[in-house]
């Protein structure tokens, strides 16, 4: 085993103006431009197939479970029998795959802006979606999530137990989907036990972003629970939140979570268990400070 550093081409991502991280690029599989963004698919030594949009890391075969399992199972296990979910973004199918592990799930609407993302996932990222993109319970819409939540879903009288914002970061095209107004539109579509699940960014490198998003969520929902996970592809500890007026992921003990995992026969969990669920809500003092700046 060698720890020597490979000097070939690197894929880099900035986390802020002063810090970032890199991975060895490996082999380029495909790249191009869609009407919305530029994309690249690489075969990397560290994480296998890796997908980027506009030069930002989105997902990889090797580490996708760190992100998708936590974004989905933290809220879903807290709900009694989640049946209907809406994913905004998430065209790689990783979130849909985790939702379908819950046996009560009858329908997942996936609203992805960019058709090319779904094509790329079908062609190059089978280990991310595991066939979820072709599951009969999936209702795929190629559309703008903003418009879907504001117009399409309300007109159809839709209600969801879970809305997942599996979106690019709140800078650039997805910015309008991280506002108080959009969170309020999402809340209108939630069922009684409904919750919103989203990622918040990197508290160490983007503390203002994380704190701002928490403020916006707290203006709309009564129970907002941030949880934190190290995401290798994003090169940092990453924040996520479960926001609801009714369900509280902190109300469950580790034993109760394990009981539910067994009862639902959740398969192929590479990250999530009762202990990781509880631990994700523990905040070191610097995080408490970030979330409650004086
Ligand atoms: N599953 C982890 C991957 C993503 S991809 C985010 C997706 O959001 C992209 O496919 C992008 O096309 C889609 N998207 C962006 N804006 C919209 C919109 N308005 N409506 C619908 N879909 C949209 C998440 C990566 C997280 C990155 C963290 N740094």
The tally of helices reads: 10
- Counting helices, strands and paired strands, the structural category is alpha/beta
Q: How many β-strand runs? A: 13
Indicate the CATH topology of the largest domain. Rossmann fold
Low-pLDDT residue intervals, each spanning 5 or more residues: none
What about the largest sheet?
7 strands, mixed
| Structural domain count | 2
Give the fraction of residues assigned to helices.
25-40%
Order of helices and strands: EEEEEEHEHEHHEHEHEHEEHHH
The strands making up the biggest β-sheet line up spatially as 9-8-7-10-11-13-12
**Ligand list:** S-adenosyl-1,8-diamino-3-thiooctane
Q: What's the gyration radius in Å?
A: 18 Å
Please identify which CATH superfamily of the largest domain we are dealing with. Vaccinia Virus protein VP39
Q: Which CATH class of the largest domain? A: Alpha Beta
Report mean pLDDT, rounded to a whole number: 96
Globular, elongated, flat, extended or rod-shaped: what is the shape? globular
């Amino acid at each position: 085993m060698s720890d020597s550093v490979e000097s070939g081409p690197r894929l880099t991502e900035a986390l802020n103006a002063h810090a970032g991280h890199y991975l060895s690029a490996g082999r380029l599989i495909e790249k191009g431009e869609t009407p919305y963004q530029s994309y690249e698919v690489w075969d990397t030594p560290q994480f296998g197939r890796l997908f980027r949009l506009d030069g930002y890391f989105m997902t990889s075969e090797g580490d996708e479970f760190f992100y998708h399992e936590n974004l989905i199972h933290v809220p879903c296990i807290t709900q009694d029998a989640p049946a209907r979910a809406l994913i905004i973004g998430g065209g790689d199918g990783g979130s849909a795959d985790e939702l379908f592990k819950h046996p009560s799930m009858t329908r997942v609407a996936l609203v992805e802006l960019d058709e090319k993302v779904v094509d790329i996932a079908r062609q190059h990222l089978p280990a991310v979606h595991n066939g979820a993109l072709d599951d009969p319970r999936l209702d795929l819409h190629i559309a703008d999530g903003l418009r879907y939540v504001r117009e399409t879903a309300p007109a159809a009288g839709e209600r969801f137990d879970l809305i997942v914002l599996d979106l690019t970061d709140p800078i650039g095209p997805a910015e309008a989907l991280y506002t108080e107004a959009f969170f309020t539109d999402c809340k209108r579509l939630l069922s009684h036990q409904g919750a919103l699940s989203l990622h918040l960014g990197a508290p160490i490198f983007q503390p203002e972003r994380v704190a701002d998003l928490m403020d916006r969520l707290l203006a709309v929902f009564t129970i907002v629970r941030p949880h934190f996970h190290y995401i290798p592809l994003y090169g940092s500890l990453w924040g996520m939140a479960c926001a609801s007026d009714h369900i509280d992921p902190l109300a469950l003990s580790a034993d109760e979570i394990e009981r539910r995992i067994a009862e639902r026969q959740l398969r192929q969990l590479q990250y999530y268990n009762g202990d990781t669920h509880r631990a994700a809500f523990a905040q070191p003092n610097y995080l408490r400070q970030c979330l409650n700046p004086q």
